[in-house]
Amino acid sequence: MIERLFINVMSQPVPSPQFEGLWRFPGETSASGYRSLSYWTDIAVQLEKAGVDALFLADIHGIYDIYDGSRDAAVARGVQVPAIDPVLLASSLIAVTKTLGFAVTYSTTYNPPYQCARVFSTLDHLSGGRIGWNLVTSYLASAERNGMGTFEPHDLRYDKADEYVKIVRALWEESWQSDAIQHDVDHDLFTDPEKVHTIDHSGPWYSVEGPHVCEPSPQRTPVIYQAGASRRGTRFAAQHAEAIFATFPSVAVGVRHMQALRQAVEDAGRPTERVKPFQSAFTLIAPSPREARQKAAAVTRMISREGELTKLCAWIGVDLKGMPDDLAINNLSIEASQSIRAFLKRHDSERDWTIGDLRSIAIMSRSPHRRTGWLVGTPERVADQMEDFAMRTGIDGFNLIPCPPRGGIDDICNLLMPELQRRGLVPDTSPPEGLTLRQRYFGAQATGYL
Amino acid sequence: MIERLFINVMSQPVPSPQFEGLWRFPGETSASGYRSLSYWTDIAVQLEKAGVDALFLADIHGIYDIYDGSRDAAVARGVQVPAIDPVLLASSLIAVTKTLGFAVTYSTTYNPPYQCARVFSTLDHLSGGRIGWNLVTSYLASAERNGMGTFEPHDLRYDKADEYVKIVRALWEESWQSDAIQHDVDHDLFTDPEKVHTIDHSGPWYSVEGPHVCEPSPQRTPVIYQAGASRRGTRFAAQHAEAIFATFPSVAVGVRHMQALRQAVEDAGRPTERVKPFQSAFTLIAPSPREARQKAAAVTRMISREGELTKLCAWIGVDLKGMPDDLAINNLSIEASQSIRAFLKRHDSERDWTIGDLRSIAIMSRSPHRRTGWLVGTPERVADQMEDFAMRTGIDGFNLIPCPPRGGIDDICNLLMPELQRRGLVPDTSPPEGLTLRQRYFGAQATGYL
Fold first, then answer.
1. pLDDT exceeds cutoff 70 at A348
2. pTM greater than 0.90
3. What is the ipTM of this complex?
4. Is the CB of B146 less than 8 angstroms away from the CB of A210?
5. Nearest CB partner across the interface for B146, out of A72, A208, A215
6. Which of A79, A434, B141, B162 has the most CB atoms less than 10 A away?
């Protein structure tokens, strides 16, 4: 029995978020809309009205340039370039909404922690506590060539991020006492300086004295989201995250990983109910099975083959262009084959993969016909799938990735949300204004980081 | 004969912008309002309706800590701490306005140029070209202790900033050709990669390869504002700025400095009409002379003496606390007395200053009774002063600093702007939607950086 599901919708201010080539899908306006205020304010108002809990905004730094040894394919196919800054976009959308939450991607690699603390305190003040931080560490080597910091190996990035989180949480939670602000007109006393403290952090990576420059915001610490899937990433998420994004390919894998995650959270000394796992899922909805099939077929046709390969090559760090389809991955260099195996792990299968298989996966993962990782069909069918998946794995909600990017948001709001409301899986009333995002997820008693 | 005046209003998301202690002024709501979205959206909507050209948002990094060798006075008196981030605030205010411009302070010291380029391209896209960048280099040593970069001497900061501007302008103006975007559905061609170029900058301070990650925004380059007053600062402003903020203490000084500025702009190889100088002025307005006198007296009483001294000590880098009033500045260390003389230069007078004089200036400069640097009185009187000052110095407009911070905005919008409209000094119709900030200042032909 599921009490309720939390529904986040994921997007990104790029021409064709998550599905390369779908800026060309009939009726889509994302090609110019991604950089237009009214495109986004329409979406935010629509999501809020429909009862969606939060808009999740992804980000990237740098341009994919592994495929064919150049950035040309990424530029030509519009693969996350051009882009605009999602943090600033979120700040605009705060102004036209009252209750919608915003989970904003912000990298620990590109911004000093003192700056990060001010950014999220500002967003939390302006939004009245509706902010989450999708904490990412990873980045592309191309960002380094733009003077955005040095490229460091994966596990080291997480070590730095551990220290980073410690610092920003100290600024948010320990620097200003709750009763520091005085507003004492008679004594010209705005703040009691005895109640504002330095944090005096000095560690291997960062030195930050403090105090924080912002007074405590409604949530103090934004809700911390994390999607680390590697072993080191899972440990990091278990230590810090309150919301975890998973992409379980099946119920069986979900059950297994949920056990591992709960164990990791316990090992980190935190109660397991303080971490909400969300399943990320590509979502394609239509009023009838026939329309869903037609739309799925159109999406499959429209996916940009080269766009998806561009992304895949950047992820695995191997240029597949020109390699024959029947080349076995085992015959590549040790480094390349290891990197590809790490990527294929999520496909949960052991076999003698070829380059052709890999190409198929890259393209087909974005095709609704594949089903794995997808919610496809009528609102009833998708709600069935969600309910079943949540019940059997124990996840708390979904991070829906609309397909196509703009029309899919209409379908989620107009078709799916009403169906979930009918089933009592999501509330059919708006949350009260002033409820923070953390309270929305964890209940009214959740006044600070759990 | 003045054709027209441009009117910017200056504020800052801190409890008591520019006037320490005035958060206590009767009717002021800035003490809590500075961090509240509705406080600011009300202001932005009001300024737009009144016909103000742009809202100028100041910023600071770090906390003043010279006075009494501690940050306690800054914290106690609320001297620019607590604060929130003005860049994010501007992004919120974009969403509730259609024609108002925003000049946003952003430091070249704390943010890599590649990031700066994305921030302003994003704001320019979302606002439809209503963005200016108030380029600042200066910062407090206390920011260094928070891991925000190394403290560097004044002139060196400008050398770095020269290179910085070169990079961001190359990203904005040279990286993407105007016809790069294709949206060619049939050929899966979003952007023509042949028309997107790296900038390959490699200089003494920065290495940035590019290309820019954003497609060209309405203005490409935001309107560049600068307030550099030192010799090096003036040279910098003459080279790069399109709008310059001056604080001329008198018409005579204004005339002299305007000549020097025009010369500096010519020396930089730019036509002088491509730089608009604005006079910054504290502004106190009331319906009648009697009410203006009463309000001025109340402001003088309410200014926080310690708050203003805290600011002064940080500016001059000398702790005045405990020094006797009759101590001559000549008797201080060479370093301290030089620094104080540099500060006093703007007061345009040579005499044997004492610590007491300096203290008086710090307090009295914020008192409307002093007149220098102030516009005080009825709307008619203030409009007279503005007209006279502009006519005799040749400035293009004003950067009004409202006193008190919130009520002063009401007075500018409700009393002063209608008077300026009656005189034909500002237009009495809204600018057309879609006009960029640069076009608003320089005319419809100003489609890019001049």
1. no
2. yes
3. 0.96
4. yes
5. A208
6. A79
